Each structure stands twice: as structure tokens, then as C-alpha cells.
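Class, study these two lines:
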Amino acid sequence: MWKLLEVMIISAVPLIEQRGAIPIGIIVYGLNPYAVFAASFLGSLIPVPFILLLFNVIFEWMKRFKFFSAINKYIERKLDKGSKKVQKYEKIGLILFVAIPLPTTGLWTGSAVAAFLKLDFKKSFIYIAIGGIISATIITFLSVVFPAFFDKIL
């Protein structure tokens, strides 16, 4: 039970998210893939409402201080890059942006992009959750299949 809680917490951490939590749960801890999927998905949703509600407020506050200028520029570049994709394809863009388990995509960045674009809270949460389910499915599949594949070869 504690290991599943760890998976849930790891999946809520930016940059690591489901991409790290699911393989840790399945490959390292040897937990049931269905339980890891559920714990990781739920954990990754924890920060979403906070990001959707508070991102712009915090980002605007940071802009007032020169100390944060480097990080603000970095965030703006990342958001601008992600925003173009989401704006072009709207709902599907946000879902796919979150669903593709690559670096600088995921629930944290998708939530920040949705907040940055001032998209509707409820719709954004739903689209981000759908993307999170797709991402968790892909990562769970890969975490189960590849170790089993390598075990057969070796």
C-alpha cells in the first residue's frame, strides 16, 4: 500500500509525472500494473486544478521581480511552443499534448498551457484528464511489455 502511495506522489511531481512513476511502480517495485495505472493517474491529477487556477496569478507576480526574469523567459518559451499546438487543434490539441509521454509534455505543462491561454477550467480539466488516461495507458503498456520482452530474449 505504501509503495502505491509513493507512485501516486511521484506522479504528481513535475517533469517526472507518470513517465517516471509508472515504470517505477511496475518495474522497480513489482506492483500490479492496474493498481499502478490508477495510482499514477490519480496522483498526476492532483496538481491540475491548482495549476489551472493559480498559474497566471503566480506567473504575473514573478514578472514583477528581476530575480525571476531568466525562469520567466524559459517558461514563456516553453508555453509559447506548446500553446501554438494547442491553439491550432484546440480540444484534440490539448488532449494529444498531454497524452504524448515525452519530455516537456504532460499534465503539468498541459495545465500551464491551458491556464496561459485562459481556456475554460472545466473543459480543460476534462481534456487534460483524457490525455492523462491515454498517457498512463501508453506508459503502462510499455512498462509491462518491454521488460517481459527482454526477459524472453535473455
